[in-house]
Amino acid sequence: MTASTRITTPFTAESTAAEVVDGIDLTGRRVIVTGGASGIGIETARALAGAGAEVTLAVRDLAAGERTAEDIVATTGNKQVLVARLDLADQSSVAAFTAAWDGPLHILVNNAGMMASPEMRTPEGWELQFATNHLGHFALTTGLHRALAAAGGARVVAVSSSAHLRSPIVFEDIHFREREYEPWSAYGQSKTANVLMAVEAARRWADDGITANALMPGGIRTNLQRYVSDEELERLRAQSAGAGVSWKTPEQGAATSVLLATSPLLEGVGGRYFEDCNEAEPHQPGTRRGVAAWALDPEAATLLWQVSVETLAA
Ligand SMILES: NC(=O)c1ccc[n+]([C@@H]2O[C@H](COP(=O)([O-])OP(=O)(O)OC[C@H]3O[C@@H](n4cnc5c(N)ncnc54)[C@H](OP(=O)(O)O)[C@@H]3O)[C@@H](O)[C@H]2O)c1
């Protein structure tokens, strides 16, 4: 297969996570799903646990995590569903999580996220969507690098969004200190960062047998829309319907994450962006599908990695 061969699979926008993982045995594999107690994170964790993996729900709300774990144990019969505290906007929480992780990690699903919030900042002054969606996952993933390398053939799955089409990384002012804050630009920038991190992790860590890919799960009604008014949501739904984005159930929304985490068709494949269970085509103007060139740009990926290291070290 050449670097330019687009990966296609028998699965579609309608496929569910359970269908994608059907016949795959994950016994002995260890998985982390961030944001695993809400929305598509629950169904991602359920499908992976259903295939026999040990799954850790990395959550900031432990009570919600415990409720979800009980539900997944009850529906899958797999008792190896664990809960651990992780607040991605709090670097000390991320550091405590990675320090406590022991042994190999086969699959890391960076799924947690927040969308289109009003302007908020961490105590460091970082814009909160970038801090949560990107910097928190960057610190988590690099903090778990040794565990991923120890697994032999580990996979990192970055849950991005078609919203990455809204903004590249604005390196001159990532944290909106000079430009006016705009909730969707901030979300879009953070989702471009998710793809770029997969591109750079795949390049840097290829010798460790680690692959990393990114995805758009589809449009799914979850708690993610908590900052979006009903009117705006209706407008977005109408726009999406006319621009080729399908609305899905959470079980369908989890399918592309589970595909990237487990499919033999993805063996050794890294640094790519998928939607509806297939590798995306380049974005065409006038649509909300496909992947923007800025999200796969290897130079931007390297620069973002450096900036992220420096930001976390400052
Ligand atoms: N739903 C869609 O239509 C859609 C479309 C494109 C992309 N996505 C992406 O899909 C992923 C999952 O979204 P979803 O729709 O399932 O949303 P969701 O139901 O709101 O789940 C997001 C999860 O992220 C967690 N989270 C938020 N901030 C966090 C923090 N600081 N530390 C740790 N966890 C945090 C939330 O925890 P709490 O429950 O404690 O808030 C929640 O568990 C996101 O990355 C999102 O950008 C979703």
Give a structural overview:
The protein is α/β, with parallel strands linked by helices and 314 residues long. 42% of the residues lie in helices and 13% in strands. The protein has helices at residues 17-21, 39-50, 62-76, 91-100, 128-143, 145-151, 183-204, 230-242, 250-253, 255-262, 293-296, 298-313, and strands spanning 30-34, 54-59, 81-85, 107-110, 155-159, 211-216, 219-220, 247-248, 273-275, 278-279. α2 (39-50) runs parallel beside α3 (62-76) and α4 (91-100) runs parallel beside α5 (128-143). The radius of gyration is 18 Å and the shape is globular. The protein starts with 16 loop residues before the first helix and ends with a helix. The site of NADP nicotinamide-adenine-dinucleotide phosphate (NAP) has 27 residues, from α2 and β7. NADP nicotinamide-adenine-dinucleotide phosphate (NAP) is lined by residues 35, 37-41, 60-61, 86-89, 111-115, 132, 159, 161, 216-217, 219-220, 222-224.
Question: What descriptors fit this protein?
Answer:
314 residues; alpha/beta; eight-stranded mixed beta sheet; two-stranded parallel sheet; 10 strands; binds NADP nicotinamide-adenine-dinucleotide phosphate
Question: What is the secondary structure topology, with strand pairs?
Answer:
Elements (H helix, E strand, L loop, with lengths): L16 H5 L8 E5 L4 H12 L3 E6 L2 H15 L4 E5 L5 H10 L6 E4 L17 H16 L1 H7 L3 E5 L23 H22 L6 E6 L2 E2 L9 H13 L4 E2 L1 H4 L1 H8 L10 E3 L2 E2 L13 H4 L1 H16 L1
Parallel strand pairs: 1-2, 1-4, 2-3, 4-5, 5-6, 6-9, 7-8
Antiparallel strand pairs: 9-10
Helix pairs in contact: 2-3, 4-5, 5-7, 7-12
The chain binds NADP nicotinamide-adenine-dinucleotide phosphate.
